[in-house]
Amino acid sequence: MEDPIVRIKNMSKAFPTGESEFLALKNVNLDFGKGEFTGIVGPSGSGKTTLLNVIGSLDTPTSGEVEVLGLEVSQLSQKGSSELRSRHLGFIFQTYNLLPVYDVYENVEFPLLLLKMAPNERRKAVMDALEWVGLTDKAQSRPAQLSGGQCQRVAIARAMVKKPTLVLADEPTANLDTENSLHILDTMQKINAALSTSFIFATHDQKVINYLHRVIKLIDGKVVSDDTQTGA
Question: Could you tell me the pTM of the whole model?
């Protein structure tokens, strides 16, 4: 493997619970390379989302090291974390998190406004992203006019519009039926192949797991297996 884009060493994460603490992640050691299509799997409460949040610099480890694109997460300032996320990371959530007062185009454009990209560059990037997910004809529609599957495709376009190095997807198919789930997964797999964008999923959905090239299993905050899947 070339230098990993994410390196996790002896990392633990604890949350205070009254007078004690809950250890959500325990001595995790993992590397993720460029272009991976990987899932963190396990039952509810196993630590999947917590691990994704730490990788995404939305949270910091209690102990150990987490390095993302050469930056140590625990040493980043609030501004530094924000810049890492806005420039290099994309996020896809199960609840879509679209802005209801904005149309599809404006929702996808929003991350680019934070980067102060020129208007003509923004327009090309937004329309390219909508073409990737097959929604150029819905650019002027608002989220309330879309199906759940279409909303999730808008969320993917928003995550991909800046061509991030890494996309973190937390249960992205949880609210979708089988047909829409497979469409979403096909879309993400094509983007992964075309742009060499790394995807890390947190999921317990077998449909997602079937698509993964690598499956990391968490139980009670510990990595219990790390396997490569052939034919995925």
Answer: 0.93
